[in-house]
Amino acid sequence: MNYEEFLTNINITMEDFCREAFFENRENIRVKKESTVVKNLQKIFDAVFKISYEKGFQAMSMRDLSRETRMSMGALYAYFSSKEELLEIIQRQGRAIVNRSLQLYLEADTPPDVKLRNVIKTHLFLSEIGRPWFYFTFMEAKNLNPKELEEVLAMEAYTENILVDILEEGTSTGLFQKRDHSLTACMIKAMQQDWYLKRWKYSKRKISVDQYADFVLAFVEAFIKSKEIGSGGRK
Amino acid sequence: MNYEEFLTNINITMEDFCREAFFENRENIRVKKESTVVKNLQKIFDAVFKISYEKGFQAMSMRDLSRETRMSMGALYAYFSSKEELLEIIQRQGRAIVNRSLQLYLEADTPPDVKLRNVIKTHLFLSEIGRPWFYFTFMEAKNLNPKELEEVLAMEAYTENILVDILEEGTSTGLFQKRDHSLTACMIKAMQQDWYLKRWKYSKRKISVDQYADFVLAFVEAFIKSKEIGSGGRK
DNA sequence: GTCTATACACAGATAGAC
DNA sequence: GTCTATCTGTGTATAGAC
Predict the structure, then answer these.
(1) B190–A191 C-beta distance less than 8 A
(2) Which nucleotides of C are covered by protein (CB under 7 A)?
(3) Residues A59/A111, Cβ–Cβ less than 8 Å
(4) Positive or negative torsion for Cα A178, A180, A182, A185
(5) In whole angstroms, what is the distance from residue B46 CA to residue B51 CA?
């Protein structure tokens, strides 16, 4: 699987994101015509990602957002009741989509090494499609209320556990060496995150997401497959 | 070298940080008595790190800072002329110390594999001593003015190049395999960063910085030393 | 549905007493 | 050196016209 193949399978657009956000928040959105809402939510979310990328969500004023979307303050508040709610809508909707997409690729009954490749690639490719959201959710996590923050941490734990389970399965079938699977999963996640956190670096060097994915996989496989390892690797 | 040994060699305290910050910014600080300044800068910086960790520097108001330090607004402004200057002082002072400390450990004329271990450990141990600062500088980089931001990016490039140079030296002496050294350096940095960005995770699991360092080293060495690697690893 | 105008709280910053 | 009191701009949010 490469990124192009992934795209033909998954097919999530910003428009889907906005349409789903509309259905999920129907009662709080004063405007009722679907096409209008979707169009404007798209403008709003794009602007939030853009401004937040430059200066952070806290530092983004509603006047900034109004300018960037070319909508008045009054119009904006027809789509959410407060700046905090706007943040929550974006976070929740993103999590829902990521969750659903990961699930899709987990069902396949394949050997652990293939499963590991698929999970790592899926996660990277997802973060490539939804890069603005992934960056946003990482940087703005601390601005969430306790309940939402808990959801974010649960998500982090969930994706990490997926990796740990695969690594353990691999060890038990003899495909992988014995390692500290929990720490290995952390390292994998750290490498995945770097892809969307330091995007400027990789863009400048013209590294494609496929190259990056292959590199991460080679890196990880060297560790869990090679036998001559120093004391640090063992549990 | 482990963390304890490192500490006995390096000996940087928060007090040193504040004293140096005082000397560097003497002309802008209205208070002149050294002991008073150092004592209060310590209160101020500690409070900035604490509040920023919880809600970010932008979201921290000067009234928050006044409450946390138990100093009045007026007193605070005797130590810096604006909130932005406060940010710059902290960023600059931190960079100066990190730079100097890395230099110290680079001079030793040792083989590449030993050098790699030392550099990775030094950087991790440094980020352990100055964890609040490392976290702060990562999360608040986007709030810097262009000139300061450039300095931060230069620092990132500098530490990455140190790694690349060592890796290349190792390849030329036959100690390491041929890999994409630039990407390998990125992965190392990503793993180093995870240590201070996700501190809550590692604290909860009672992973010490020594354990973490050994694990990262084992992970990296498996990749650059083992011969059987998929296509992704090669340049 | 969208706009303009505005309410009102709170931000950063300073003056001047002590 | 530090405090209190206060200035002025900007923040989020809303009311009511169109």
Answers:
(1) yes
(2) 1-6, 10-16
(3) no
(4) negative
(5) 9
Q: Which of residues 53-72 of B touch strand D (CB under 7 A)?
A: 70-72
Query: Which chain A residues are within 8 Å of B191, Cβ to Cβ?
Result: 187, 190-191
Contact list, A156 vs chain B (CB under 8 Å): 201
Whether the model clears a pTM of 0.90, i.e. scores above it, the answer is: yes
Domains, in order of start, for chain B: 3-225 (1.10.357.10)
User: HSE on the CB side for A106, CA within 13 Å?
Assistant: 14
Average pLDDT of the residues of chain B: 95
How many angstroms separate the CA of B63 from the C1' of C7?
23
**Percentage, residues of chain B above pLDDT 70:** 97
**Per the CB < 8 Å rule, is B186 touching A194?**
yes
A160-200 pLDDT, tens per residue? 999 999 999 999 999 999 999 999 999 999 999 999 999 99
Cross-chain Cβ contact B233/A218 below 8 Å: yes
Pair A65, A44: CB distance under 8 Å: yes
Q: What is the pLDDT of residue A229?
A: 67
Which of A49, A217, A149 is CA-nearest to residue B187?
A: A217
The protein residue nearest D5 (Cα–C1') is B74
Interface of B with A in 124-143 (CB under 8 A): 139, 142-143
How far, in whole angstroms, is CA B102 from its chain's centroid?
10
> Using an 8 Å Cβ cutoff, are A208 and A3 in contact?
yes
Q: At what angle do helices A209-225 and A3-10 cross, to 10 degrees?
A: 110
Give tens-digit pLDDT for A100-146.
Answer: 988 887 877 899 999 999 999 999 999 999 999 999 999 999 999 99
Q: Are B224 and B120 in contact (CB under 8 A)?
A: no
